[in-house]
Write a structure and sequence with these properties.
The complex is a heterodimer of chains A (170) and B (131). Chain A has 170 residues and is of the alpha+beta class. Chain A is 17% helix and 26% strand. Chain A has helices spanning 85-102, 123-133, and strands spanning 17-21, 24-29, 48-51, 55-60, 110-117, 142-147, 158-167. In chain B, strand 4, helix 2 (91-98) and strand 5 (104-109) form a beta-alpha-beta unit. Classes of the chains: A alpha+beta (170), B alpha+beta (131). Chains A and B meet through strand 3, strand 4, helix 1, strand 5 and strand 6 of A and strand 2, strand 3, helix 1 and strand 6 of B.
């Protein structure tokens, strides 16, 4: 049973998580515990994430379903993406993953995530896809979600930007 | 290099890099978007946001205060606030908490927030030394 749809969960829940990355301590601190205690129903927001000193930070550009590298200004033949939010979310996550992979990182390195959505009612579908990448929320970055009227291309419904923390020497 | 531009495909012509990596000796605290909703409320519990924006602002700031306290830092360690509003105001309340400290701030007027009834949401980044 999923209850990600419940938008009242503004802030977090689920048990406190710690990313086990050598040389770096990241703590995700929820201030309450999900009554269900069920991982698949756990909410995807940590109230806050603390990244300890002695690390690098990686700031990623906002990614939509548009290919990571594209011309600016946008050209019509490059603006190709599925209409459905599930397909778009996968493409967004793969774009972000390309950058994480390049730096030798995983989703567990992600400390902050901002979601820019055309429609907040698509949150549950988006979170369901995101959960596949975030190990069904065994790690939760601090997360902020907002609804905006337009993204960088007409068909885009979702943009995500993230900040990742990297242990020195990675 | 303390600042390194990420280029995953070794392409030369890109207007915007997909990522930038920086080296820092600071620890950081990233907060999720926080509203007036009490932090310890169960996710499926009902919560009626007060109509009054000042009241919502105070409750939200108390929530953030709680997180800062738990992390052992103060408003003085907050470096960036992104403020989301559906209604203008609440600034006098903010001063009670921040005093004379002004972190860099970005303010966005939005049509709605993720929770019905919420009029204000803050996204906060603070510096926090290691324990």
């Amino acid at each position: 049973m999923r209850d990600l749809l419940n938008r009242r969960d503004f802030l977090v829940t689920g048990s406190a998580g710690m990313a086990a990355l050598s040389g770096l301590q990241l703590f995700s601190f929820p201030l309450s515990v999900n009554a269900q205690g069920n991982r698949s129903s756990a909410l995807p927001r940590g109230t806050y994430v603390r990244a300890d000193a002695g690390m690098d930070l990686l700031f990623l550009a906002g990614a939509t379903a548009l290919d990571l590298y594209h011309l600016h200004p946008h050209v019509a033949h490059e603006v190709i993406m599925p209409e459905d939010i599930v397909g778009q979310t996968h493409m967004v996550m793969r774009n972000l993953k390309e950058v994480l992979d390049d730096q030798g990182l995983t989703w567990q390195n992600v400390v902050k995530l901002n979601r820019y959505q055309k429609d907040l009612s698509e949150s549950a579908a988006i979170e369901e896809v995101m959960a596949e990448y975030f190990g069904y929320w065994d790690w939760r970055p601090a997360m902020t979600t907002m609804q905006i009227r337009n993204l960088s291309s007409e068909p885009a419904r979702l943009e995500i930007d993230i900040v990742a923390a990297i242990p020195r020497g990675t | 290099m303390p600042i390194q531009v990420v280029n995953t495909r070794n392409v030369s012509a890109t207007a915007f890099p997909p990522g930038i990596r920086v080296t820092s000796d600071m620890g950081f605290l990233f907060l999720s978007g926080i509203t007036a909703r009490p932090l310890d409320l169960e996710p499926d519990a009902d919560f009626d946001y007060p109509e009054d924006l000042n009241e919502q602002t105070r409750m939200m700031l108390e929530n953030i205060q709680q997180v800062l306290d738990e992390a052992g830092i103060t408003w003085r360690d907050v470096i960036k606030i992104t403020r989301f509003y559906t209604e203008r105001g609440g600034n006098s309340v903010v001063q009670e908490f921040l005093g004379d400290w002004n972190p860099c701030t970005t303010t966005l007027g939005v049509e709605r927030l993720p929770e019905a009834g919420a009029k204000i949401m803050y996204d906060v980044i603070a510096v926090a030394a290691a324990d």
